[in-house]
Design a protein that fits this description.
The chain is of the alpha/beta class. 50% of the residues lie in helices and 12% in strands. The strands form two sheets. It has a seven-stranded parallel beta sheet with strand order 1-4-5-6-7-8-9. Strands 2-3 form a two-stranded antiparallel sheet. Strand 7 (274-276), helix 13 and strand 8 form a beta-alpha-beta unit. The protein binds coproporphyrinogen III (CP3). Residues 36-41, 50, 56, 83, 85, 87-89, 101, 106-107, 153, 169, 216, 218, 335 line the site of coproporphyrinogen III.
């Protein structure tokens, strides 16, 4: 941005992509907003398209359908960013692990629990197997409104590994934690395979048109500090550093859920430009301890959107006041849940769009 020759303060540029402006340290008329899991089962138009392809992996790998459902929340609510519709478990699929989603059970993978299992995986066919994702990104980049940014994403290696090792979601990520303690070198080989694959996967998304990428480390909170540094911070740092070499201007958002005050260390230890706050992080703490070092994103309770009304309005106002308007991206503390009334999301969107610095 060029402000030379002007003595006035930089004025907000409402027509530019607010998300990119904020991530570049610029000034906006109001904070940008998008919601994790903004495309999904709470939208009847999502359920209608989803019903046409029962197998979830095939659905994610259908560029027509994936692009269509990515755009649905943008068309309905006017978010400032679209997030590619895909899933973090497409990387294990691309590495040759059997992945399926069972109705009512969530993801089921053929578990990889030791070095022999690891030896059966390979990144050789990754880009063939998930190439449809890059096509989805290309289509989105060509069709998004000019003021809407496109976010690519991947799971961070630790969270992806918890599913690869456990074979399914678990409350305590026990299988991966045990492998990491019992055979750290073997587990490091798994993390390294996923890290390298993720660098290639996100790089291709960026080349196809993703303008920002987010890493989801949903299960970071199950690790004590030394393990957290090794399996969460270090792989995120490696991905971020590798992407910076080739794509220096593309911002990275890191979302490490459940790490409490260590959220304040994430940016310094990994170099990410922005940090996602989960619902447990106090906004005042984030303003004082996280925001000086990074743009922050978050963290309205998804259940406040289910409840709607006064609670949602008051919480939204508080977040905008404490964290906005600069260095702030409005979002939830975790994904939109299926029972969310779309009308509440519309009210939330209207409140944020009406807000002015
Ligand atoms: O945010 C978006 O709108 C983009 C799409 C997106 C999905 N999953 C689509 C999805 C993103 C960013 C994800 C990330 C993801 N996937 C995470 C990290 C974020 C988080 O929520 O913690 C994780 C852990 C997964 C793995 C995963 N995918 C699980 C555990 C499940 C089953 C649970 C559930 O909600 O059903 C999924 C399935 C999934 N991924 C759905 C959607 C819309 C629902 C499946 C369906 O439509 O049948």
């Amino acid at each position: 941005m060029a402000f030379s020759g002007s003595v006035t303060a930089p004025s907000p540029r409402p027509s530019a992509k607010r998300l990119l402006t904020v991530l570049a340290g610029g000034v906006v008329d109001r904070p940008p907003f998008w919601l994790m899991r903004q495309a999904g089962r709470y939208l009847p138009e999502y359920r209608a398209v989803r019903a046409t392809t029962p197998d979830f992996v095939s659905f994610c790998l259908d560029p027509d359908k994936a692009a269509a459902v990515t755009l649905q929340p943008i068309e309905r609510f006017g978010m400032d960013a679209a997030i590619l519709f895909a899933d973090i478990l497409l990387v294990p699929h691309g590495l040759g692990q059997a992945v399926r989603f069972a109705e009512g059970e969530g993801p089921l993978l053929e578990p990889v629990t030791d070095r022999a299992g690891l030896a059966r995986l390979s990144a050789d066919r990754l880009h063939d197997k998930v190439g449809a994702v890059y096509e989805t990104v290309r289509r989105l980049a060509a069709s998004l409104p000019a003021d809407v940014a496109l976010i690519g994403f991947a799971g961070a290696p630790w969270t992806v590994a918890t599913y690869m090792v456990g074979g399914r979601g678990s409350p305590d990520q026990k299988a991966a934690r045990l492998w990491a303690y019992r055979d750290p070198d073997g587990f490091a080989a798994l993390i390294s395979l996923v890290t390298e694959a993720t660098i290639g996967y996100l790089g291709r998304q960026i080349e196809a048109g993703a303008e920002v990428v987010q890493l989801f480390d949903s299960w970071a909170g199950s690790l004590p500090e030394p393990e957290l540094r090794r399996w969460v911070f270090a792989p995120i740092r490696a991905i971020r550093d590798a992407l910076k070499i080739r794509y220096p201007t593309v911002p990275v958002i890191g979302f490490a859920k459940g790490v409490g005050p260590l959220t304040a260390s994430l940016a310094a230890e990994t170099g990410v430009e922005a940090v996602g706050l989960d619902g447990s992080i106090d906004a005042g703490f984030a303003a004082a301890a996280v925001q000086p070092g990074a743009v922050v994103q978050g963290n309205l309770d998804p259940l406040a959107v289910v409840a709607g009304g006064r609670a949602m309005r008051a919480e939204t106002e508080r977040l905008l006041r404490v964290l906005g308007p600069d260095r702030y991206i409005f979002n939830l503390g975790h994904g939109v849940v299926p029972e969310t009334p779309p009308a509440h999301v519309a009210q939330l969107a209207a409140q944020i769009k009406a807000w002015r610095r």
